[in-house]
Amino acid sequence: MAEPPAPVEDSEVSGAAGAGGGSAPLAGVLVADFSRHLPGPLAARLLADLGARVVKVEEPSAGDPVRGAPPTSRGNSALAAILLAGVESLALDLKQPSSRDVADPVSTAISAQTTPL
Fold first, then answer.
1. Residue 1 in contact with residue 96, Cβ under 8 Å?
2. pLDDT number for residue 17
3. 85 with 45: CB under 8 angstroms?
4. What residue spans define the domains of the chain?
5. Rounded to an integer, what distance in angstroms lies between the CA atom of residue 4 and that of residue 96?
6. 20 contact partners, CB below 8 Å, separation of at least 6
7. CA dist., res. 117 & res. 101, Å (int)
8. Among 41, 77, 80, 75, CA closest to 57
9. 93-113: pLDDT as tens digits
10. Going edge to edge, which strands form the sheet with 87-91?
11. Vertex 56: Cα angle to 55 and 60 (nearest 5)
């Protein structure tokens, strides 16, 4: 069973906004990303760049469709490499009770959530 993400420490935050010794604007913020397709991963990437810890929850069988978007190189999507950089991934089938056991503590710890429209 997958473990829920650990709490975020300010010293762990890295990214464009946190560079230069200053504090990142979203340091200490935990975001759960349940989105799919282009707008969600873009928003998640921007939040991660601002210092938030972003955990993307994906279906184990398929993942986010952006992972297969062309162009690809050796089976890896260039778009996914750009949009998912700095974002953690957690594969959960939320239709299964064991996955909900992992998701429930995460949902109580998050500061923000992205969802598909």
1. no
2. 43
3. yes
4. 35-114
5. 16
6. none
7. 25
8. 41
9. 988 888 888 888 777 888 888
10. 87-91, 53-58, 30-33, 112-114
11. 125
